[in-house]
Amino acid sequence: MPRFLIERQFAEQLQISDDAKLHIKEINDDEGIEWIFSFLSADKRKTYCLYEAPDEDAIRRAAKRLNIPADVITPVDRVDPGIFA
């Protein structure tokens, strides 16, 4: 499945409750996407999230349903140090 890096800018510091985590998983499952992991900036107002998704539209639909930004969506491929050995 294609991978995407999503950059999100939040107006306030990011706080995710346990209930919100369940809601995120439900919507992501419904849209056919998987949240792999995220990096959170030191000020807790920006995230960089790696997702697997059928396409960018699925990510945008999930973000809209969750009322969270998806400011920049970039298709990415995996590169690791092993390919240079």
Summed up, what is this model?
Pfam families: SCO4226-like. This protein has 85 residues and is of the alpha+beta class.
Structural category: alpha+beta
In the CATH hierarchy, what is the class? Alpha Beta
Q: What is the number of domains?
A: 1
Number of helical regions: 2
Which segments are poorly predicted (pLDDT under 50) over 5 or more consecutive residues? none
Number of strands: 4
pLDDT averaged over residues: 92
InterPro entries: SCO4226, SCO4226-like
Protein name: DUF4242 domain-containing protein
How do the strands and helices of this protein lay out in sequence?
Blueprint: E1 3-9, H1 18-31, E2 34-40, E3 46-52, H2 56-66, E4 72-76
Antiparallel strand pairs: 1-3, 1-4, 2-3
Helix pairs in contact: 1-2
Keywords:
DUF4242 domain-containing protein; about 30% strand; 2 helices; 4-stranded antiparallel beta sheet; alpha+beta; SCO4226; about 80 residues; Alpha-Beta Plaits; SCO4226-like
Describe this structure in words.
This is DUF4242 domain-containing protein. InterPro entries: SCO4226, SCO4226-like. The protein is of the alpha+beta class and 85 residues long. It has one domain (3-76): Alpha-Beta Plaits, CATH 3.30.70.3090. It has 2 helices and 4 strands. The protein has a 4-stranded antiparallel β-sheet with strand order 2-3-1-4, covered by helices on one side. It starts with a strand and ends in a 9-residue tail after the last strand.
